[in-house]
Specification:
The complex is a heterodimer of chains A (171) and B (504). Chain A contains four helices and two strands; from the N terminus they run αββααα. With 171 residues, chain A is an all-alpha fold. In chain A, strand 1 and strand 2 form a beta hairpin. Chain B is an all-alpha fold and 504 residues long. Chain B has one domain. Chain B is built from 21 helices and two strands. The chains are: A mainly alpha (171), B mainly alpha (504). At the A-B interface, helix 1, strand 2, helix 2, helix 3 and helix 4 of A face helix 8, helix 9, helix 18, helix 19 and helix 20 of B.
Chain lengths: 171, 504
């Protein structure tokens, strides 16, 4: 593996590291459940089980199983050489995730229809490398279709945002 | 033949022009959902659920279940033409389906897959028709301990039969229970695990989790793999369909074996995916040209398709009769029923017979509608996949976001969806199964209250789960399923040591 000339292009976080991280993370979630259930009372009150009774044991099982997963991840040393995701591919994933997060962040401000137009057009132009007019046509077309489908046909109102551009249309 | 009378009553409820139109709309949407990457039966139904809130319950469930049939059939189109399984349960279909398409027999492969799907689903529906009322009548005698032991059995068989590591299944399932516990406690009204955030008062909706885990997670995976769609084209005509049907009749034995496997794994919550693999494996072992499997054998398409559809359909039996879904999609359908105030389970057969039998009748009609649409519209659906991924992917994200928003009309739900998406991506890459998480999230409250009521009855004594032969045998079965991996490993080790001893 060490003399692999393409090593730099196939590098990335190892599966073992991610396994260990996730096991610790689920352990933490279990521990939070255990503590919060203890706070609420995980025993018996005069009228039966207290609110934390069931989640307490669920939390304990999560902690126990996470430790088992942690142990497996530590023992399986060969996973250290297995790449979880190559950096180049992780960049691809981020190209999807970051615009999606921006899109979600924009919804409360400009509403879902305007955000959809901008998101689709932007994604096609910058990630898909389409000509700008194609992006705008597809973006506008899709959001008009969604507008008709939800607001007009099914009468399901979607968020229009703080800057309510569509109020001039009567919606 | 009381069931037949009820069934014909069901047909009379369903056969209105409005419902038939909805049926075709549902199937059409379902096939699209099945063809698109990132959208599947579970999140497709979850996204479209809010659109049906304005309809009468029977029409709504007819449309939703037709989306499910469409997705079950549609997954095969992409497997065969593009070598991309649209659904996890159609992975086994690619083994022989894609080679057939490469050899120029795409039309035969598609016909085989649709017809086998239809056969599998039809057998499962017939089973539901006669078995579900019996199970429901039997379950009327159930008290809280019995119900909890059935839940226990459901979850234990996930651990025992899953192909992932048992502790990973356990973590994922318990996280589902944990997420279900967030928010208001149903019994005492105490707030649990919300840490002062008012957004968490209502807890996590499982619909959001389904849309995020399966939809967004899948899109991120597709993006990582850099999906390039390059597929074969196919056009079906009557001669091909007729010839393929004549060839398929020879494989009736394989079909029946696969159907039995599918029905069995569908009722017990193994689900469609393991059923399709198992049926493929069994067909390969039993067939006389099993060695040629993988090179484009008709039988290799038939076996997994019969199995996955009979499993997918029979997963609705425990959902209807006991209120315990056998698959994530059945869980979403159950969530839909709860929205209309219909509590699935034994009482539903008594209280709302027109609804139950309408649904069962619509399963027959829906499958016929799906077969017709599939056989006639393949080029249309294949064309969808020729739309480049950089257009399809953001559109799917937008659809998921709209679906997540409409569940509760809350924008922060879209953030949860994105968060679940990232978890879905990581969990999938590390082989943490997602189905147990979703089922636990759906059943969490019901399982908890069954457990608490049992504990109240028994004053905290766990022996109540062995207090009579009924609850005792269910619990015993559950424990057997739970420890099956250990037993199986022990058996293998024993056999290996024996072989080692004779070899030495």
């Amino acid at each position: 593996m060490a003399e692999d000339p393409n090593r730099s292009s196939t590098s990335g976080p190892s599966t073992r590291a991610i396994e260990i991280f996730i096991a610790l993370f689920t352990f933490a979630l279990g521990a939070i459940m255990v503590f919060d259930s203890r706070r609420l009372g995980a025993g018996w009150a005069f009228d039966g089980p207290q609110p934390g009774y069931f989640p307490f044991y669920i939390g304990l099982i999560i902690c126990f199983a996470s430790l088992a997963n942690l142990a497996t991840a530590i023992v399986e040393r060969h996973q250290r050489l297995v790449v979880f995701v190559e950096w180049a591919r992780l960049r691809q994933v981020m190209k999807m995730l970051v615009p999606a997060a921006l899109f979600v962040g924009a919804i409360p401000l400009i509403g879902i229809y305007v955000a959809t137009t901008v998101y689709l057009a932007g994604f096609m132009i910058w990630v898909g490398r389409y000509a700008w007019y194609k992006g705008i046509v597809v973006g506008l077309g899709t959001s008009v279709f969604f507008f008709l489908m939800f607001e007009v046909w099914f009468k399901v109102p979607l968020p229009k945002g703080a800057y309510h551009f569509l109020r001039y249309l009567g919606y | 033949m009381e069931e037949l009378n009820s069934l014909f009553y069901g047909f009379s409820v369903v056969l209105t022009p409005y419902n038939i139109v909805l049926m075709f709309v549902g199937v059409f949407l379902g096939i699209i959902v099945g063809v698109l990457p990132g959208l599947g039966g579970a999140n497709g139904v979850a996204i479209l659920l809010p659109l049906t809130f304005a309809m009468p319950p029977t029409s709504a469930i007819v449309m939703l279940s037709c989306i499910y049939w469409g997705a079950l059939f549609g997954g095969a189109i992409t497997s065969i033409l593009f070598n991309i399984p649209g659904e996890p349960w159609s992975v086994a279909t690619t083994f022989d389906g894609y080679p057939m398409a490469q050899n120029g027999h795409a039309a035969e492969a598609l016909t085989t897959s649709f017809t086998s799907s239809f056969f599998g689903a039809l057998c499962a529906v017939i089973m539901i028709t006669f078995l579900a009322p019996l199970v429901a009548r039997f379950a009327l005698k159930f008290g809280p301990p019995e119900f909890f032991s059935v839940y226990f059995l459901t979850f234990c068989s996930f651990i025992g039969m899953g192909k992932e590591k048992p502790f990973k299944i356990l973590v994922s399932m318990m996280l589902g229970f944990g997420l279900a516990a967030v928010g208001m406690d149903m019994v005492t009204g105490t707030l649990r695990l919300n840490f002062g955030f008012s957004e968490l008062l209502r807890g996590f909706s499982f619909l959001i989790a389904v849309i995020g885990l399966f939809g967004i997670g899948e899109i991120l995976l597709c993006m990582e793999e850099g999906l390039e769609f390059s597929g074969r084209s196919a056009r079906l005509n009557l001669t091909v369909v007729w010839d393929t049907w004549r060839r398929m009749i020879r494989f009736w034995g394989t079909a029946i074996r696969s159907m039995v496997i599918g029905c069995w794994l569908g009722v017990t919550p193994g689900g469609a995916t393991p059923a399709s693999f198992m049926a493929y494996g069994v067909a390969k072992r039993m067939s006389k040209d099993g060695a040629d499997f993988g090179t484009g054998k008709l039988e290799g398409v038939l076996a997994p398709e019969v199995a996955n559809n009979s499993a997918g359909t029979s997963a609705l039996l425990p959902m209807l009769a006991l209120g315990i879904p056998g698959s994530p999609t059945a869980a979403v359908l159950l969530g839909g029923l709860l929205v209309w105030g219909l509590q699935p389970g034994p009482l539903l057969f008594v209280e709302k017979p027109e609804f139950v039998w309408g649904l069962i009748a619509s399963m027959y009609l829906g499958n016929i509608a799906t077969l017709i649409l599939c056989l006639t519209c393949v080029p249309v659906f294949a064309a969808i996949l020729r739309v480049p991924f950089s257009i399809i992917a953001p559109v799917i994200i937008v659809v998921c976001a709209i679906g997540a928003y409409t569940v509760n009309n809350a924008v922060y739900d879209i953030w949860y969806m994105l968060m679940f998406g990232v978890f879905g991506y990581v969990f999938k890459k590390l082989d943490y199964p997602l189905a147990p998480l979703v089922l636990a999230l759906v059943l969490g409250d019901a399982a908890e209250s069954a457990f608490r009521q049992s504990m109240l009855l028994a004053q905290g004594d766990l022996r109540i789960f062995f207090s009579n032969w009924l609850v005792g045998s269910i619990t015993g079965l559950a424990l057997f399923a739970l420890f099956w991996p250990i037993v199986a490993r022990g058996l293998v080790a024993l056999r290996a040591s024996r072989v080692g001893a004779t070899a030495a």
